[in-house]
Amino acid sequence: MEELGNIQALQTIAKVLIALSKGKQKILVSSMVGYESGYHVDGIGIIDGENAILVSLTEQLLPYGGLSEDIPIGDKRRDITSAMSDFDGQQRTDFIIAHYELKSGAVVVSKAFGWLPSGGELALIHAHKAEVNELLNTVGGTLLGDDDYWTSQMFSNEHAWHMSMADGKFAMWRGQTDELAVRPVASLEGYAEAESE
What we know:
Strand order of the largest sheet: 1-12-3-2-4-5-11
Radius of gyration: 17 Å
Number of strands: 12
Largest sheet: 7 strands, mixed
Strand content: 25-35%
Order of helices and strands: EEEEEEHHHHHEEEEEE
Shape: globular
């Protein structure tokens, strides 16, 4: 098995795999053959160079959350270039929840699985959408649609960036009232790729 705990050791060839767990064992497999019994499907793993994420099996349609106009964003405000390339969704999600004290919405719901993906993490999912959907279909997950998906990148105190899963384009929208698709992601740390059968 190839250990994936160290992000620097990840392969340079992109892979999309099923993430399974059984007790303390965490593995990545290309198919469910031989793993149907006793294993829990955690999600779909994407490994692309130094970037690796675990994509949730399900999604919801939610507003971003109750954002406040009186709390400054500071350096957490991002332009379109950063929105498309940053891989800091976990830190960004934690920042938003702590500073805005959100109790509901896309950011909070995503935290239950891991975090709301950054623009770069969501773009990584879009780049491998066909392969992710093929494996989601295999394990009974909710397929990625052509909808607009929230990122964890805020543009202002009221607006957040979202990405169209249809064409990968980014735009910003009001987060307090508009409902968009939410697909949480998590870390692949601790998973090991299973040896080929």
